[in-house]
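User: I'll paste a sequence; please echo it back and then give the predicted structure.

Assistant: Echoing your sequence first, then the prediction.
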Amino acid sequence: MSPNELPFIRGMFDRIAPRYDFLNRTLSLKQDVAWRRETVFSLGLKKGKPAQVLDVACGTCDVALEILDRTGPETRVTAVDFSLNMLELGQEKIRNRGVEKRIALLAGNALGLPFNDGLFDAVTIAFGIRNIADKRKALEEFYRCLKPGGTVAVLELSTPENRMFQALYLFYFLKILPMIGGLFSKNRSAYEYLPESVLRFPRSEDFSQIMEQAGFSEVVWRKMTFGIVTLFIGVKR
């Protein structure tokens, strides 16, 4: 990671934070709701069983709130992000839901998580791993923070493999999305960065190998919505 990369990405997310949720719903045609639900379901958390969950790159806390919705009142979530503006919006959502005691927000960096080893039953990161240059180091941090038997779920945008759909998708992704995103967020460069970062993301087979190199076993992945997102699951043994 270059010295300038982290401030650039943090500043970008700080600037688009006010329109982030709206654009997520609009640009994904509300599919992002189903993607997050499936991510939480993949963790295998049981209602009635206490669980500690870490959500990295939590943004405005949509995943953290989904975790509470899909589990019991015994679940506690620690949500981490390096964008203070995103965290402020997440805090507002948490207050509106009255779940301040169940979600703890923390400003932090995925490459140096301030937690003891083996603290969490599960770790999630949604649409954040592609923004981290040293993906293996981040995954090693997730592995360190997990209890033995714990699960990591990585949800990320990807490029469809079907050639016909890929051509349509890339036209939308490279031409239409930056225009719409820029119009509503007043920050076109952020939505030009988005497709560039997705196109640079490793192929599913390669990323699964990075997960294994970080220590995870039983690594599997599943493509959703014609392959425009991929959900990766791994277990700490």
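The beta strands are 51-56, 75-81, 103-107, 120-126, 146-157, 217-224, 229-235. The longest helix spans residues 5-27.
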